[in-house]
Amino acid sequence: MTEFPVSMIHPDAPEMLSATALFTAPIDLEAAAARVGTLWSESIASEWEEGGSILRFALRDVVVLLSPVPGEAVPERGRLPAHGFHVALTCFAPMQDVGGFGAGVGGFGPGADGFRRENGGSGGEFGDRAVEAGGSGIPGFTGEEIAELEGLPREIGLRRRALTAHVVLTEVADALMREKSAVGLFRPELGVVQPPRMTVELADLLSKGQAPIPLWVGIRVSKPDLVYGRTLGLPLFGHLDLEVVGSLHSEEEVYAMLSNVVDYLLSADAFLLPGQSIGYRDGKDLAVSQAVSPADRAAVLHIGF
Predict the structure, then answer these.
(1) Which of 272, 298, 300, 299 is nearest to 286 (CA)?
(2) Residue 142 CB-half CA count within 13 A
(3) Whole-number Å distance between alpha carbons of 265 and 240
(4) Do the bridges between strand 116-117 and strand 182-187 make them parallel or antiparallel, or are there none, so unpaired?
(5) Does 285 reside within a domain?
(6) Looking at the domain assignment, is residue 196 inside a domain?
(7) Which residue numbers delimit the DUF4261 domain (predicted)?
(8) Model-level pTM greater than 0.90?
């Protein structure tokens, strides 16, 4: 079997994550930022920059930038729901000097959820996770554990920082979407506007130690003839998106399989590579290969299911 370095297959997880919060009317942005601290028991010290055009604060060592903009947001393609005001939301989580990891490493640990991973790599059983609270330094880690983090590959460091940024994005979105004038949160990479109620309800999963997967990764399944499935958003975590083409399984089965694989990838320091197989239910092995998606010509990992 040919071995592929992770850096040759998967993109680097970006250090910056963005979204656009849509509203029918202007909001008190300082009050919304303060609500983040109240909802998530965090200390928020916000300040205006750039002549009062950007509200900035730090949360779990992720820099949050909120830019209020009168009028409608204009997407690169498609149309957005009617709105008259929007807030550009940016979470900046740069790599720092703790072994390539930023301070306050956050994420979810391995558990168990019906998958096993074969042909090398980290992982194993996985499923329920516990959020590692952030802050200054790396709280909850001993000196030996920090030394172990320092030895991990750069790709995993970037992925963990991206996971922390997604946690922070979700907490900030939770606060913004509680505004009475909220219309939704536009995620361009996912191609969706997430409604306020959905955002608030799924964000609560973080308090239970669970990842709000539908807020982070889109999973689309259709049946023009045979069943087709595709994820959107995994490159934001340093993974190629996943695709299933021509499956004889039902749409529900394809969705469940992709959801479980996404859950696994976000909860373990593991990457899927071409030539590997995934041990699925009933002892089935699902082959993994690299492909070009017929939908948008993007590089993806094809799962034989």
Answers:
(1) 272
(2) 2
(3) 11
(4) unpaired
(5) yes
(6) no
(7) 230-299
(8) no
| Nearest residue to 136 via CA among 166, 96, 174, 163 | 96
Q: Which two tokens stand for residue 235?
A: 């490159």
pLDDT in tens, the chain (305 residues): 455 667 678 999 999 999 999 999 999 999 999 999 999 999 899 999 988 899 999 998 899 999 999 999 999 988 999 999 999 999 999 876 433 333 333 443 333 233 333 333 333 222 222 222 233 233 333 334 333 445 567 888 888 999 999 999 999 999 999 999 999 999 999 999 999 999 999 999 999 999 999 999 999 999 988 999 999 999 999 999 999 999 999 999 999 999 999 999 998 888 999 999 998 887 889 999 999 998 888 999 999 99
Question: Measured in whole angstroms, how far is the alpha carbon of residue 251 from the centre of its chain?
Answer: 23
**Residue 38 domain flag:** no
The answer to whether residue 59 is domain-embedded is no
The structure tokens listed for 189 are 């990479």
Quote the domain boundaries for residue 258: 216-303
* Domain count within the chain: 1
